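can u do me a favor
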């Protein structure tokens, strides 16, 4: 059963020039020249009082400029090395990704953002802006470019990158995030939409938890089917779906999944009456059909879901430190 779009892409590793720290050298040099000029000579005695009047505001301006800290927010284009994960068919070259940091300093909790079956889409930028606004770093992970894929939505393409395959992508990304000085490696979560949502559910497997204990702290599944509850571990899982979504029938699947879990396996399921696929995507304003399945934004369901996600992540990942 197919699942849907929304992706991540990137390039090399450098800070966006629009976020470069401002240079203060010209101000410092001008002030040095100002100080080195003689205050009293036969020709400039009348300028002494003017210089005295200027020196105080000049000092204040310089102090303010030098005290302004460099911006920490920005987007890096990065390359994620592949860590072989049992059971996952992974690419033979590194993953492309972007890492976006929130404003402020410190070691940030991080969320790995997963696209749907159709690749990169506008809703990802909405999520990057929303999550960084809440204080999370966001790693937008591209599972397709390293595999030479554009889409796996069609039934005949589903085997090219399954949620289990992409779980290996997520774990590779989480292990890489642990090496980053800006990231709190003890507070890493996942958020996926559609096919990426199914991946977010799949990566909570107890086998991955055994291999990488404590690596993931929370996972959010937007309208991706939840499968095989017997394999689920103890990573907290939030599933959000519309009851009118026919693409994978994620509402029904995730409710059944949750009902089969034990008390020590925290899972929250939010079902929105009348909502269809893509209900949280503000760019999907007009009703459309993807492989016969309706998809459209629902502002009421979307806004409620954002609040649910914010509370869930705050509970299990916390705010930025």
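np, heres the sequence
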């Amino acid at each position: 059963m197919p699942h849907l779009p929304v992706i991540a892409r990137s390039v090399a590793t450098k800070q966006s020039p629009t976020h470069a720290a401002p240079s203060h050298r010209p101000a410092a040099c001008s002030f040095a020249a100002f100080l080195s000029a003689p205050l009293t000579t036969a020709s400039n005695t009348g300028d002494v009082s003017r210089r005295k009047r200027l020196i105080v505001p000049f000092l204040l301006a310089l102090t303010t400029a030098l005290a302004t800290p460099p911006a920490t927010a920005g987007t890096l284009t990065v390359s994620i090395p592949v860590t072989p994960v049992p059971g996952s068919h992974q690419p033979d070259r590194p993953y492309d990704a972007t890492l976006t940091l929130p404003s402020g300093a410190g070691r940030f909790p991080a969320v790995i953002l997963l696209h749907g079956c159709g690749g990169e889409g506008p809703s990802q930028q909405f999520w990057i802006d929303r999550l960084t606004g809440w204080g999370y770093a966001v790693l937008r992970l591209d599972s397709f470019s390293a595999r030479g894929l554009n889409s796996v939505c069609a039934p005949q393409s589903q085997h090219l990158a399954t949620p289990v395959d992409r779980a290996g992508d997520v774990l590779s990304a989480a292990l890489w995030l642990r090496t980053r000085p800006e990231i709190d490696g003890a507070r890493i979560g996942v958020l996926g939409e559609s096919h990426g949502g199914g991946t977010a559910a799949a990566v909570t497997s107890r086998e991955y938890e055994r291999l990488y204990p404590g690596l993931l702290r929370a996972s959010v599944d937007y309208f991706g089917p939840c499968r095989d509850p017997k394999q689920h571990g103890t990573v907290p899982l939030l599933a959000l779906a519309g009851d009118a979504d026919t693409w994978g029938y994620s509402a029904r699947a995730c409710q059944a999944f949750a009902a089969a879990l034990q008390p020590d396996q925290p899972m929250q399921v939010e079902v929105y009456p009348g909502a269809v696929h893509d209900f949280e995507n503000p760019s999907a304003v007009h009703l459309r059909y993807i492989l016969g399945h309706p998809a459209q934004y629902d502002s009421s369901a979307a806004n409620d879901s954002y609040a649910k996600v914010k509370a869930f992540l705050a509970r299990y990942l916390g705010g930025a430190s």
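Strands lie at 74-80, 95-101, 108-114, 137-142, 183-193, 218-222, 237-242, 267-272, 288-290, 293-295. hope that helps!!
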